[in-house]
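User: Please predict structures.

Assistant: First:
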Amino acid sequence: MRLLAALVLTIHLMWILFVIFGALWTKRRPWLTGFHLASLIWGIIVEVGPWPCPVTLLEQHLETAAGQHSYSGSFLVHYLDAIVYPSVPVWLIITCGVAVCSANLLIYAVRLVRALRSRRSAS
């Protein structure tokens, strides 16, 4: 169960990195752009809404089932947990999360404007 909890936490960290840096990886990949835009909207909803992230709930369930507490468990789970859930004020995490998602949306807006301008000038 501990290994499964570590795996879910690793996937969660990879998801967070995709949300943060996804706009850098999606250029000229429309299918990935759509997926990343959906992940940004989901990220904003989870950050500002009252609903918990389902992946977080799964992590908590698996850690509890494995008998782990906040600092017990394997080295991997402890340090990944500290990266995914840093010890900073909640308002700061929410502000940074929304800012990162907004910055990515701005990148997409700039790409869209450039694409529309290039199509207009090509006509």
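Second:
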Amino acid sequence: MDELDGNVAAGALREVFALEVTTARGRCDGCGNVAQLGEACAYVNAPGIVIRCRRCDRVQLVLVRRNGSYVLAMSGMTWVELGAK
């Protein structure tokens, strides 16, 4: 298998990040709960947005906008399924 750089994923990533993310299902890395991101608890009185698991309160996602760009951390999730119906 030939090794390519990450630019080869540009098309697929563009499709993924254009989807409605609040309907995406994800698994909490803390308690294993599987739920839509829109069902989680959101805190916006901070420099960014913090999403926490409704069941165990673990931080699942942090989104910060700074200098015209975004920083996204999803370290509290085992996986995220986008585009599921």
